[in-house]
Amino acid sequence: MAIKISERCTTVTFLSRASLNIFLVCAGDSDLTISSSDGVLFKLHRKHLEVHSDVFADAENATLPANGADEVVVLSETSSVLDVLFQYMYRQPQPNLQLVEFSVFAGVAEAAEKYMVYSALPAVLIRMRRYLGSYPLQVLDYAARHNYKDLANKAVRSTVGLTLAEAGKNLSPDTFLKWVRIFYQNYFFFGLHITEKLPGNFL
Known about the structure:
Blueprint: E1 13-15, E2 22-24, E3 32-35, E4 41-44, H1 46-52, H2 54-57, E5 72-74, H3 79-87, H4 102-114, H5 121-130, H6 136-145, H7 149-157, H8 164-170, H9 173-186, E6 189-190, E7 193-194
Parallel strand pairs: 3-5
Antiparallel strand pairs: 1-2, 3-4, 6-7
Helix pairs in contact: 3-4, 6-7, 8-9
């Protein structure tokens, strides 16, 4: 259920777990309302989103003031993801991604790519490298789909020993097929486990 925005539009806030600071959902002078997939309404400033996101800058009719103050732009991301993402579009300390659980972080990474929020991408890539050991398949999938060659080539080496079932669950279809092809061409399978080390480059 969406948060009800008060007429004064100054007291409704969302606690960001990424920064442990209050990030405004409802700015009093906002001119753009965005709804997350779980119904949280973010009252934001169009100018910040247009400056920091190529997608919002090109949205034209979706972000025109002439559409009226009551219009709501609905996005497919959750409020937890958008709360972190929108902080990269404001002049304030950036969120600490170390405090963000991986499922939310992965959503932020995808949203930063989707909406072309370039200010978020360097921090996302640094954090992705930290997850090579604990989430190698997810990092590989992200890197492969967004053409980060160095990251993908490092991630694929961390997938040695993982099962086909694990790979199929965590990789997108195109990435999974390429992953299987690389290992089948160069290595032997016993049961469902890869027994060799260090495949060649993925990208």
